[in-house]
Amino acid sequence: MESSVLSFPTRGQGGSAGWRGNFAPQLVEELISEYHPALVRDPMMGSGTTPDVCKRLGVPCWANDLKDGFDALTGEWKLGGNLTILHPPYAFAIPYSGSVWGQKPDPRDPSTWPPERYPAFIAWLNEITFHAYETMEPGGILAILTADVRKAGRLYPIPFDLARYGELVANLVKIQHNVRSAGTQYSSRNFIPIMHEVLMLTRKPRLFAFIIEGAQTRAFQFDLRQFIKASWPALVLAGMHEADDKTDLQTLYQVMSGYARVKLAQAQGIDWQAIVRRILQEQDCFASVERGVWQVNKPAIRVQ
């Protein structure tokens, strides 16, 4: 990237120009050129801009969306990748479900929530950001594109209100082109029109210890293994790393038995060992080397 200001007046190849609010394909191209990812992840792909660009450039990609049945808040993310792109709805700025896609609003879609639920929207996005961060390998880059929105004279500063996970690499300004508000006539314009977005880039420096900072969150660190909201895929990966990336199931169970979510599952009568086995079988970053013995498939999740 040549500077901290990004501007793409003409849309490139990828996704659909008719999908409201989606970013230019050149943004994905710039990120790929800068970080040379082994795997790109995008859990809110919208019209498919990210996977389209990745396919054209020959970069492996995992992309999904609520419209296709994947809920980034509760779904199991693909582990690994050294570039994750998050482009969430800008709160209530553009309602998606029931308008851009689907026959009716989806209650899981925060773009349909009223402005009074803005704090809930920030909490929703912070939790999704956590899931993106916990499932990355150390050294991975998390790119979050957001913007301020205005409603009934009030400014909602999304980039400012978000918690920041990891080490800040850069805050870039992306100029917005061809936005509907630019052609709107206002009887009184006693405000500054919003014509930019903010692209925040952070890096995950360590495997277990998380760094969280932000306007609504004081700076602190915590251990993934002692966090009851950690996802099962991330915990299995953590356990495999603690076991030196190759181990038999019984040793893995023993390593994970001290994790906070595992203890909670045991107290609730949940067969957490069955969950571990399923994840080992479903996530392609794990490989079975012999009966009952698994290893981390490092090329699938680490920067080459």
Describe the structure.
The chain is α/β, with parallel strands linked by helices. It has two domains: about 5-225, Rossmann fold (3-Layer(aba) Sandwich), CATH 3.40.50; about 225-300, Winged helix-like DNA-binding domain superfamily/Winged helix DNA-binding domain (Arc Repressor Mutant, subunit A), CATH 1.10.10.10. It is about 25% helix and about 25% strand. The chain contains nine helices and 15 strands. The strands form four sheets. Strands 1-9-10-5-4-2-3 form a seven-stranded mixed sheet, with helices on both faces. The protein has a three-stranded antiparallel sheet with strand order 8-11-12, with helices on one face. Strands 13-15-14 form a three-stranded antiparallel sheet. Strand 14 and strand 15 form a beta hairpin. Helix 1 (about 25-35) crosses helix 2 and helix 5 (about 230-240) crosses helix 6 (about 250-255). The longest helix has 17 residues, at about 120-135. The protein is globular.
Set out the fold topology.
Blueprint: E1 5-6, H1 25-35, E2 40-42, H2 49-57, E3 61-63, E4 83-86, H3 118-134, E5 141-146, E6 149-151, E7 154-156, H4 158-161, E8 163-165, E9 167-175, E10 196-203, E11 209-214, E12 217-223, H5 232-242, E13 246-248, H6 249-256, H7 260-267, H8 272-282, E14 286-290, E15 293-296, H9 298-301
Parallel strand pairs: 1-9, 2-3, 2-4, 4-5
Antiparallel strand pairs: 5-10, 6-7, 8-11, 9-10, 11-12, 13-15, 14-15
Helix pairs in contact: 1-2, 5-6
